[in-house]
Design brief:
Blueprint (H helix, E strand, L loop, with lengths): L5 E5 L3 H10 L4 E6 L13 E4 L5 H10 L4 E4 L6 H14 L2 E5 L12 E4 L2 H8 L5 E4 L5 H5 L6 E6 L12 E5 L6 H10 L4 E5 L8 H8 L4 E4 L9 E2 L2 H10 L7
Helix pairs in contact: 1-8, 2-3, 6-7
Bound molecules: NADP nicotinamide-adenine-dinucleotide phosphate.
């Protein structure tokens, strides 16, 4: 690995993977994952760390100990806790930080979207309905939705969640993106889905189900993003790479 300025990339997204891999040619890159996925994809040439830091203060101490010059928070748009911790820790340690936040999806002609402010709001919209719902929100969704016994859910997760004795109305399928539109179209038809619940994650990797729902005139409950502080946010990997290239960094050996 090249000796150079030290960069922490908070990962778990396609964008984080792309930027970390490109940055590794010039930087000492620490690539941090929450550790939720059993077999995550790892960029080449980076040092990987897994698991939480233990809050903002512990992250600040870690940044100091590792003499980190820059932090790129490229975590998922719904990963709010780590985003706040990064902001606090970087302020404390005066470490330069950038948030890479991919653009939201916008409703297109033919889409039938209902908006929910969060997951619980989405669950409330389902009360007293009898639907077959595709949920690609992952294992966290199971507890919130399993009590809606009139509704049948197909839940997609990267790994099989534990414990594996799911309520009768929940069917788990596993899969790792990106998911093509044709693949999602087939899945919605195969499981006789008549409603999709999705977070407004943005990006191409999980957009297939939204496009397939449009093709099949299936309504979507779209869960809005949590708000973010407007400082130092870019929305493309190119902008993040540019930020990494143009700045003067001190070199550690
Ligand atoms: P979260 O609520 O913001 O994170 C919960 C805690 O997990 C954080 O406080 C932090 O623990 C730890 N953590 C999160 N991301 C980390 C990282 N990259 N490196 C080290 N520790 C991390 O986030 P979440 O919604 O549970 O998502 C967890 C991870 O999965 C994120 O990295 C995100 O990019 C990825 N992901 C999330 C989603 C989603 O839908 N939310 C989808 C795809 C990928 P400490 O406070 O102990 O440091």
């Amino acid at each position: 690995m090249a000796k150079g300025p030290r960069l922490l990339v908070l990962g778990g997204t396609t964008e984080a993977f792309d930027v970390a891999q490109r940055a590794a040619a010039k930087y000492v890159v620490y690539y941090s994952l929450a550790g939720r996925t059993k077999t995550p994809v790892i960029p080449e040439g980076v040092k990987v760390r897994r698991g939480g830091f233990g809050g903002a203060n512990a992250l600040a101490a870690w940044l100091t100990r590792k003499r980190i010059d820059r932090v790129l928070d490229a975590t998922h748009p719904f990963a709010q806790n780590i985003a706040k911790n990064v902001e606090t820790a970087c302020k404390q340690t005066q470490t330069d930080r950038l948030k890479l936040l991919r653009p939201e999806w916008k409703e297109q002609p033919g889409d039938i979207w209902h908006h929910a402010s969060d997951i619980k709001d989405a669950a409330r919209l389902l009360e007293n309905t009898k639907k077959r719902v595709f949920l690609s929100i992952g294992r966290q969704a199971i507890d919130t939705f399993s009590k809606l016994t009139n509704t049948a859910f197909v839940v997609r997760s990267i790994d099989l969640p534990k414990p594996t004795d799911f309520p009768k109305n929940i069917k788990i399928i596993t899969g790792r993106g990106p998911f093509a539109i044709e693949q999602e179209h087939k899945l919605l038809v195969q499981h006789k889905i008549d409603l999709v619940i999705s977070r407004n994650s943005g990006g191409y990797a999980t957009y297939g189900k939204i496009a397939a729902a449009r093709q099949l005139s299936i309504p979507v409950i779209m869960v809005s993003r949590p708000p973010y502080s407007p400082k130092k946010i870019v929305d493309t990997t190119e902008s993040a790479v540019e930020w990494l290239q143009i700045t003067n960094l001190r070199f550690n050996s």
